[in-house]
Amino acid sequence: MRLRALVFDDDEKIRSLLTLILESRGYTVLSFPDPTCFSPFQEAVCPCPPDHVCCDILITDNVMPNMKGLDFISERIRNGCRGIVRNKAVMSGTWSAVDLAYARSLGCRVFEKPFSVGEILGWLDECEKRTDPSRKLVEWPGVSLNYAGAG
Known about the structure:
- The chain has a single domain (4-137), classed as Rossmann fold (3-Layer(aba) Sandwich).
- 30% of the residues lie in helices and 19% in strands.
- The protein is built from four helices and seven strands.
- The protein has helices at residues 12-24, 69-78, 97-105, 117-130, and strands spanning 4-8, 28-32, 52-53, 57-61, 88-92, 109-112, 136-137.
- The strands form two sheets. It has a five-stranded parallel sheet with strand order 2-1-4-5-6, with helices on both faces. A two-stranded parallel sheet has the order 3-7.
- Helix 2 (69-78) links the parallel strand 4 (57-61) and strand 5 (88-92).
- The radius of gyration is 14 Å and the shape is globular.
């Protein structure tokens, strides 16, 4: 089972490091500076067919120039996204008590920057155990599924 991960972080070095970690585990990784750079997420409702998911793992920074990670997750859940519901993580170097509580209420794993690679790897182990091997991943026209490191 090849897993798909989405990574959003405006810091190119962190985005590249996360992509490297995920690819070393055999994941297909789509990586962008923020969610507004990935066209399927511009739609108001989930673009995935009912029996498909967009990804197995989502890792996002919280503080990005165009959209906060928590706002993105909340919007996707509200609009019916099934792919980012289970295995989602948000990271930040500037957590407020309100944002931490909100992240946890959305079911996010929270990481403090700078993060420990070991913590990320442990979380990925947990995510892999929760991932249904029979799930179907959506294919997006015009999106290379080996794409990583935009911006």
